[in-house]
Amino acid sequence: MEFFRIRFPLFLLFFLLVCSVISKAYAEPVSETVTVDGMAPLSGSRSVAREGAINDALRKAVEQSVGVMLSSETLVENSALVRDGIYSKSQGYIKQYRIVKESAAGNDYLVTVMASVGVSELKNDLGALGLLHVRAGMPRVLFMIAELQSGRDTPLFWWGGDTSSTAVSETSMKEEFLNKGFNLVDVSAASIRSGGAVAAKNAEISEEMALEAGRVSGAELVVKGTARAGSTAGATVTPVGSYLADVSASVIRVDNGQVLASGRGQGVSRHVSRNVGENSALELAGKDLSKKLIEQILAKWEAETSGLNQTQLVIRNLKGISDLQKVKAYLAERVSGVQNIVQRSYQEGMAVLDIHSKSSAQEIADVLSTADHADIRLEITKTTPHTIEMRLGASK
User: Fold this and answer.
1) Angle (deg, nearest 10), helices 321-334 and 361-369
2) For FRET with 385, which of 35, 71, 206, 212 sits at 20 to 30 Å CA-CA?
3) First and final CA of the chain: distance in angstroms?
4) What is d(CA 379, CA 322) in angstroms, rounded to the nearest whole number?
């Protein structure tokens, strides 16, 4: 019975970690299948020409996947970077391929290939090159992680005045984000220390307080979360202790409060020193969570680049529902690529709408600022990468 009491917690921990790995393997999309044509000149050996045509097809398969993830403008502006960093090692992204058709036509050898492209690796490399970051507007990231270790009476967090008190897990997460090309906010800046939202002495802060800290610091994204570390349950017959850390966090857009990513990370460590063991587990947990969050963020940016953008409109000074209906009709008529307009709320002359369209928030704002309609005159008062605030002026 004593043996079971000692060993069962370690067995349970191992079981949970195995389940986590299996779940991740099934949840993550790792590849996509595309069909492309390749060509090479028949100037010499037929086998050499065939190999050249296959390589041409595989490169085009990767190009096609890149084109889906990035806009044409981003590709043109960063063509050399993409060519050197992605296309030059295109075969490294090919999981497998099958030749569907091949033939010699005149002076050329032609092949049609069905290839499986490793989109996860491709997406990570595009993120590392900063191309998705460029398309997303190079957002700055503010970290707010409150960390509790078993040897401390109170959590460790930098807000509340002491910006030197940075959690181990937060430092680990920052390193991972920096390695992927993210821009981080310096929490030692005076503007952050003087902000009302970060003057709280409590580690538990609300989402609104975190968003206010983001606005004060000039961040576009806030990573808000908690971390905890401690020894695993049960006695041990050796001086080496086992330590487990758990970190959970969400990535929130500052301008509209949208959650881009959310997840948990875990880390396990063994050491004779409790402090070193817990710090090591926290570092591993921070890295584990960062990889999950970054993957979700890049997937969101990829979807926004290749699909529909969501822009939140706040309209004030409406005289009634009839004014709101006119504005919605104008949006559907004049803004390019509008697929859907969702009315979130209307109260006392103010309405909140979500627009799903191919146009960015800035493009929508440009159109609305030049609205030429007998019954509509819109005055833009504020814009962010994902929100527009305006008021309805007097009709002409």
Assistant:
1) 110
2) 206
3) 86
4) 18
Q: Which of 243, 246, 249 is nearest to 280 (CA)?
A: 243
Q: How far apart are CA 62 and CA 92, in angstroms?
A: 10
Residue 295 phi, psi (nearest 5): -65, -40
- Measure the CA–CA gap between 312 and 219, rounded to whole angstroms: 19
Could you give the dihedral angle defined by the CA atoms of residues 79, 84, 88 and 92, in that order, rounded to the nearest 10 degrees? -100
How many whole angstroms separate alpha carbon 120 and alpha carbon 158? Answer: 34
pLDDT at residue 307, rounded to an integer: 63
Residue with tokens 């390695």: 179
pLDDT of residue 218: 87
Residue-wise pLDDT for 71-107, tens only, equals 555 554 555 556 555 655 666 778 888 999 999 888 8
- CB within 8 A of 240, min separation 6: which ones? 270, 271, 272
Q: How many CA atoms lie within 13 A of 276 on its CB side?
A: 6
Tokens of residue 178, six digits: 């920096």
Q: Exposure of 211 by Cβ count < 10 A (0-12 exposed, 13-18 middle, 19+ buried)?
A: buried
Domains of the chain plus CATH, in order, are 32-129 (3.30.1660.40), 137-306 (3.40.50.10610), 309-392 (3.30.70)
pLDDT confidence of residue 18: 45
Residue 99: Cβ within 10 Å count: 15
Q: How many residues are there in the chain? A: 396
pTM equals: 0.60
- Joined together, the tokens standing for residue 201 give 């002495």
Buried b / exposed e along 175-208 (16+ C-beta atoms within 10 A): ebbeebbbebbebeeeebbebebbebeebebeee
Residues of the chain with pLDDT under 70: 1-29, 67-91, 123-135, 160-165, 189-201, 233-238, 305-307, 371-375, 394-396
- Look at residue 21 in the predicted model and tell me its pLDDT: 44
Give 316's strand partners: 391
Q: Are 254 and 214 in contact (CB under 8 A)?
A: yes
